[in-house]
Amino acid sequence: MSKRDAIETVNSHIGGRSLTHGNTCYSSINKTNPVRWLTIPVARFRSDLHLLLRERDGGLIWIRIPAGHFPDPRKVFRYRSERDAVSLELSCEKRRYLMELKGPGSVRLLPLVEHEFAN
Question: pTM of the prediction?
């Protein structure tokens, strides 16, 4: 499943075109570690931000981060000043499922899951 396919899956589900390439980040599970990595420009947190996470079985998790939910993401996630972006490393392990592992905030994104799509 590509990012384009994932966006189309969610847009079809909600009956609109809310998700676009510009407001959506996509990641799948790393092959060697049970994590997902995302690098997100800080500016994207000013509007609704959508994370689409592909599961190993082909399913899809849709996370919606409302505009302003993290007023200053640089204080919550690992900040990369050279890119003015934050790096997320999201756990796939059951006990820390969807928890950001590297930032100072130990944020769990599970409460922000909008929908899970089965394969």
Answer: 0.93
